[in-house]
Amino acid sequence: MWRVAVGPACIGSASCVALSPALFALGEDKRSHPVRAEIEPDGAALDAAFACPVEAITVTDQETGRVVSE
Length: 70
Ligand code: SF4
Hints:
Blueprint: E1 2-6, H1 15-19, E2 24-26, E3 32-34, E4 38-39, H2 43-51, E5 57-61
Antiparallel strand pairs: 1-4, 1-5, 2-3
The structure holds iron/sulfur cluster.
């Protein structure tokens, strides 16, 4: 499983939501939040992480602890 997190750097550009609406949603705080913190490995999570203008999204392989979104 992968763990998806959005850090405080998020500026609410919504690029991740547009690219991967099944994985990210804007909250009332106008920042993105993962729809689910744990997901099956999914390239859409990486697409969103790479598209984020402030690199706020981190995707981590829970088994190895490796950050896969770098
Ligand atoms: S793309 Fe990055 S800055 Fe934009 S809403 Fe998503 S996490 Fe926030």
